[in-house]
Amino acid sequence: MASVTRAVFGELPSGGGTVEKFQLQSDLLRVHIISWGCTITALEVKDRQGRASDVVLGFAELEGYLQKQPYFGAVIGRVANRIAKGTFKVDGKEYHLAINKEPNSLHGGVRGFDKVLWTPRVLSNGVQFSRVSPDGEEGYPGELKVWVTYTLDGGELVVNYRAQASQATPVNLTNHSYFNLAGQGSPNIYDHEVTIEADTYLPVDETLIPIGEVALVQGTAFDLRKPVELGKHLQDFQLNGFDHNFCLKGSKEKHFCARVHHAASGRVLDVYTTQPGVQFYTGNFLDGTLKGKNGAVYPKHSGFCLETQNWPDAVNQPHFPPVLLRPGEEYDHTTWFKFSVA
Ligand code: BGC
């Protein structure tokens, strides 16, 4: 059983509207989600001793989310991740998006789904947010109706994404939470053990666009099929961190994606999804300059993201899983974040 309560979180400047906060609570989890960007602002999880800590990076107040910041907790769309040079073709017609991460388009553009107010609807065990992305928004073709639903089931936070298009358009929706299972504000994630269920990954160029090859992880730093301790692993392979798409095994049905275990607290996060990929990002661009919750500052590697999604730049790479949604079809994907202790 879950309970749901709602409250005002803040007012947008210049009469932009009221941002609300929804609290979803079960015996095992307490989650705060706001209607600005469908953003998860807090996620309290118990450790082995039953002590709860907030395990996601973020801000105490709305102002934090309105400043330039790296998508903490937000839903990303219309297309998560990078589109090379912000350019693609649909049915022969070329489209140009804003270049907001030189020389590419990142996470939906200048004003993506993370930077808009959504319409909430309270459910018995969660909250559903909806909005209509207008034709031409951020340069994307056609109107897109979108529903993002968060529900709580014991130790599991379930996120469902649905969309319908009026014209063929690429769609790729994800959640961009940064986790630290030691508790947000802990200096790094080096003592986290990570497993990702992927035999292959996508090597990238210097602008982080996949070069097109689907490479085997075997014998590389990307082989995370057995648990690795992150700090030691990065050191062993002299890596600056991960910011890569792992190609998941499994079909469009629910399949296992990743497991992260924090031995000191006992907290475990298991991720399942219907998506074909996951961007594993270790907060390489965090630099300690943001003022987070409870005085936290978030240095490099102080949080990790498991962004379940289609493969980056799929709209330009025909051998990647299809990313176009056509009129009459329904986009429907789900990701499960399951917390436990071990
Ligand atoms: C990307 C990173 C980016 C981060 C925040 C991740 O999804 O893969 O390259 O820096 O989001 O912007």
Provide the fold topology.
Elements: E1 3-12, E2 17-25, E3 29-34, E4 39-46, E5 52-54, H1 62-66, E6 75-76, E7 82-83, E8 87-90, E9 93-96, E10 105-106, E11 119-123, E12 126-133, E13 144-153, E14 156-165, E15 169-170, E16 174-175, E17 192-196, E18 200-201, E19 215-216, E20 228-229, H2 230-236, E21 243-247, E22 255-262, E23 267-273, E24 277-281, E25 305-309, E26 324-325, E27 331-341
Antiparallel strand pairs: 1-2, 2-3, 3-4, 4-5, 6-16, 7-10, 8-9, 11-12, 12-13, 13-14, 14-27, 15-26, 17-20, 17-22, 18-19, 18-21, 21-24, 22-23, 23-27, 24-25
The site of beta-D-glucopyranose has 8 residues, from strand 24.
Please give the number of β-strands: 27
The rough form would be described as globular
H/E topology pattern: EEEEEHEEEEEEEEEEEEEEEHEEEEEEE
Into which percentage range does the β-strand content fall? Answer: 35-45%
Question: Number of domains in the coordinates?
Answer: 1
Which architecture per CATH?
Answer: Distorted Sandwich
Structural class: mainly beta
Spatially, the strands of the biggest sheet line up as 11-12-13-14-27-23-22-17-20
Give the count of helical stretches: 2
What is the share of helical residues? Answer: under 10%
Oligomer: single chain
Q: In the CATH hierarchy, what is the class?
A: Mainly Beta
- Distinct small molecules: beta-D-glucopyranose
Largest sheet data: 9 strands, antiparallel
Measured between the Cα atoms of the first and last residue, the distance is 23 Å
- Unreliable stretches, pLDDT < 50, 5 or more residues? none
Rg, alpha carbons? 19 Å
Q: State mean pLDDT (0 to 100 scale).
A: 98
Main location: cytoplasm
Keywords: Carbohydrate metabolism, Cytoplasm, Isomerase, Phosphoprotein
Subcellular location: Cytoplasm
GO molecular function, one term: carbohydrate binding
